[in-house]
Design goal:
The complex is a heterotrimer. Chain A is mainly α. Helix content of chain A is 83%, strand content 0%. Chain A has a single domain, classed as MetI-like (MetI-like fold), CATH 1.10.3720.10. Chain C starts with a helix and ends in a 12-residue tail after the last helix. Chain C folds into 2 domains: 42 residues; 217 residues, MetI-like fold. The chains are: A mainly alpha, B alpha/beta, C mainly alpha. Chains in contact: A-B, A-C, B-C. Chains B and C meet through loops of B and helix 1 of C.
Chain lengths: 281, 255, 266
């Protein structure tokens, strides 16, 4: 009990860095191997277990892979994947624009912010799927009810983070701009909004994962195409391997979209990262 | 050049509240270098913000070249103490300097030339493409000075601009400032709490007491150009220093 | 000084502003329905909805539905937290464990939990277990990441100090690691509580497990939009109450150190 988990962590940090180039390479390789051990073992385990278990719910992974190639490369892409993604991006784009515009207005005006506070608090606490029946009444079962739900569900994190970002702008950044007679419009677009982007992106990232969830749910409740519809229909007709391919596809989509977002964020906010790195040092 | 008359500033709606600036009166002549010296909390920053038109005054007035200041005037540039919060981290050094020029109506070509010239004047000619956070604190404050210079002000207001850099860098920045002050033929109003700095830089030192009013004016007749070694070793330097120290200490006697 | 003066001057009118804001929103809704901008068959006048809401709130069935939703919410949130916090503590305090599991975690985290609905229904059927599993899966990730960051954020000087005073492993954990990580965990709980409610309602809508979500869709398909909107309002108020409660809990836990107040795991 003398060697604690915390102890090893601290020990790892103080261990002297490897001297020579070969040793450094060796270290990097070891690290990579370490990170890949668990995923590889896990995948192999799943492959082996599903292959010999003969479970109805967990068909062999090889079979799922075969079905996946059949279905999604690229037969159903046009019929299910594209409609799903299209609706998601439409709703998300609306949420980004509306959230940023309203958030900026509320962030700048204390009066508006206070007056809107109870309504915003209520609407953002309302679980968006509860509004799906409402959206169905409003827009019918077509694309727009789904776009509406996705926009309505994802707008709140963007809105609230924009408000915080706009309010949190360093007053001196604005004083400097005022002292150089930068007009109010340019102060907003060139100073306030750029300074708020780190917060706005944090909100957009939360919203992205909500958008994927709502895309799937809205297709599960009422739709005749889309990945969510496909997965639920497969389950209802006990087409288990097909259902699994849909689940895997949604997982991959979630991962890829998140990754794309992180890459874009790193590009747009490179200065923020640099700034933070500097103040840490 | 700059005329401050019976300036008062009270924060908040209560007129009986303790004023931050009370009955402040002084003048600054064109091309003069005036230092305002005061201990922390004596209302220096509030006074400067009133002069810059960033804060409305309660009574009295500020005139810049015979015009009453009601908002940030075009002939004035402001250098803040905290460079990390007055430079825009998402713009390169060049863009930080050129940014205000666009809204001043300076043509693009001219703005670029002015930016380059100002950056060279502060010794950062080669760093235009860097971002502020890639530079050291002293270099960042030089960028802030370059931005002010490129704006071609007639008067430069500086709020403890060198307070957050180390002593070595500070001496370098002081000499740089004196150099550009001469070259650009501008007026400087420099706020500091450092007696040595005030004496070293100024033609005239105003001592401020809370609530901000001028308690003492000291003419500094040390020869120019000034030099960190010879000026600070000059017999008058010590005399002025003690005089100001006495004026700053609460009882009016040297500590 | 400036901002303080403004705040104290503005505080008295805050309540009035908020009431005015609510009034404007309600008026807008009323106008939309009365003017026929929204067809009346599906969008009854707002006044009727409020009446229905208060009628429901006075009766037992609404509270039964709320109880069912809350039960799934609580079991899922509890299970997710009970799994995530210890794992997060382990991964946060051991670099090796963190490295070993990183790739798997980064792959699993973005998987939308609703993608698992069909599978869960197959395995667990359409009762509380399904709801619990989905909620637990969804809240596991934010709880895990908040805990990891919380433990990793422990000031090394504080640990060294505790060591220098001869505190044992357990004492060190209890006196240094746990208090530093607690604010992060509290924030994680607040984020997770609203995610849990979303998942519980979703599961009821899609799978048909009893609860508010199912009640809403039943009211819709029964052609009773008044009741549907009243139920949606009840759901919103439930979400708001949970938010407020967890926000208050978080503020209490964080009161000792406001600087800790940040959401690292979104």
């Amino acid at each position: 009990m003398t060697r604690t988990a915390i102890g090893t962590a601290a020990g790892g940090r103080t261990r002297p860095a490897a001297g020579g180039g070969t040793r450094r390479w060796g270290r990097a390789l070891r690290l990579l191997a370490l990170q890949l051990v668990v995923p590889v073992v896990l995948l192999a385990g799943i492959w082996w277990w599903t292959g010999q278990a003969g479970s109805f719910y967990f068909p062999p992974a090889s079979e799922v892979a075969r079905y996946f190639a059949d279905l999604w490369l690229f037969e159903r892409v046009g019929g299910d994947v594209l409609p799903s993604l299209g609706r998601m991006f439409a709703g998300y784009a609306i949420a980004v624009v509306v959230g940023m515009v309203l958030g900026t207005a509320l962030g700048l005006s204390r009066l508006l912010r206070t007056a809107a506070d109870p309504v915003v608090q209520f609407l953002r606490a309302l679980p968006p799927p509860a509004l799906i029946p409402f959206a169905l009444l409003l827009f019918g079962a077509g694309d727009w009810s789904k776009v509406f739900i996705i926009a309505l569900g994802t707008v709140w994190p963007i809105l609230l983070n924009t408000i915080d970002g706009v309010r949190g702008v360093e007053s001196q950044l604005l004083d400097a701009a005022r002292s150089f007679q930068i007009p109010a419009g340019a102060r907003l677009t060139r100073i306030v909004l750029p300074a708020a982007t780190p917060r706005i992106f944090a909100g957009m990232r939360t919203s992205l994962s909500i958008a994927i969830i709502l895309m799937v749910v809205s297709e599960m409740v009422a739709s005749d195409n889309g990945i969510g519809y496909f997965v639920l229909e497969s389950q209802r007709s006990f087409a288990i391997p097909e259902m699994w391919t849909g689940i895997v596809l949604l997982g991959v989509l979630g991962f890829v979209l998140n990754w794309l977002f992180v890459v874009m964020e790193a590009r747009v906010l490179f200065w923020h990262r640099g700034l933070k790195g500097n103040s840490d040092a | 050049m700059l005329e401050v008359a019976q300036l008062s500033k009270v924060y908040g709606p209560d007129p009986a509240a303790r004023p931050a600036v009370a009955d402040l009166t002084f003048d600054v002549a064109a091309r003069e270098f005036v230092c305002i010296l005061g201990s922390s909390g004596c209302g220096k920053t509030t006074m400067l913000r009133c002069l810059a038109g960033l804060e409305p005054v309660t009574s009295g007035h500020v005139r810049l070249r015979d015009e009453v200041v009601s908002g940030p005037p075009r002939e004035m540039a402001f250098v803040f103490q905290d460079y990390s919060r007055s430079l825009y981290p998402w713009m390169t050094v060049e863009r930080n300097v050129a940014f205000p020029l666009r809204y001043k109506g300076v043509p693009k070509q001219e703005a670029r030339a002015a930016t380059q010239e100002a950056l060279e004047a502060v010794g950062l000619g080669g760093r235009g493409r860097s971002y502020p956070w890639q530079l050291s604190g002293g270099m960042q404050q030089r960028v802030a000075i370059a931005r002010a210079l490129a704006y071609r002000p007639q008067i430069l207001l500086m709020d403890e601009p060198f307070a957050s850099v180390d002593a070595q860098t500070r001496a370098g920045l002081e000499d740089l400032l004196l150099d550009v002050w001469q070259r650009y033929e501008i007026t400087v109003l420099f706020v500091t709490h450092d007696i040595d700095e005030a004496v070293y830089l100024a033609d005239r030192v105003l001592v401020l007491r809370a609530p901000a009013h001028v308690a003492l004016t000291v003419e500094v007749d040390l020869p120019r150009p000034r030099n960190q070694l010879t000026t600070k070793g000059h017999p008058d330097f010590g005399r002025l220093r003690s005089e100001l120290l006495a004026a700053l200490s609460p009882a009016g006697t040297p500590q | 000084m400036v901002s303080l003066a403004r705040v104290s001057a503005g505080r008295g009118s805050d309540l009035g502003l908020k009431v005015a804001g609510i009034a404007v929103a309600l008026l807008l809704v009323e106008l939309c329905t009365r003017s026929g901008l929204l067809p009346e068959r599906w969008f009854p006048p707002a006044g009727e909805i409020y009446a229905e809401f208060f009628r429901l709130a006075g009766g037992r069935p609404l509270w039964v539905e709320i109880g069912r939703t809350l039960l799934g919410w609580a079991t899922g949130l509890g299970l997710g937290a009970v799994l995530a916090v210890p794992i997060g503590m382990a991964l946060g305090s051991s670099r090796t464990a963190y490295r070993l599991s990183r790739v798997v975690i980064e792959f699993c985290r973005p998987v939308p939990p609703v993608a698992l609905i069909p599978l869960t229904v197959l395995v667990y059927g359409t009762d509380l277990q399904t709801k619990t599993f989905l909620v637990a899966f969804a809240v596991f990730w934010p709880m895990l990441f908040q805990t990891i960051y919380g433990v990793q954020d422990v000031d090394p000087v504080a640990i060294d100090t505790a060591r220098a005073y001869g505190l044992g492993t357990f004492a060190r954990f209890r006196t240094v690691v746990l208090p530093s990580a607690t604010p992060y965990i509290a924030t994680g709980l607040r984020i997770s509580s609203s995610i849990a409610l979303i998942l519980a309602i979703t599961e009821e809508l899609v799978v048909g497990t009893p609860g508010l979500g199912r009640a809403i869709i039943v009211a819709q398909s029964a052609g009773d939009p008044t009741r549907m909107y009243a139920l949606i309002i009840a759901t919103g108020l439930l979400g708001w109450a949970l938010n407020a409660a967890f926000g208050a809990l978080e503020r209490r836990v964080l009161s000792w150190h406001p600087a800790q107040r940040q959401e690292v795991a979104r």
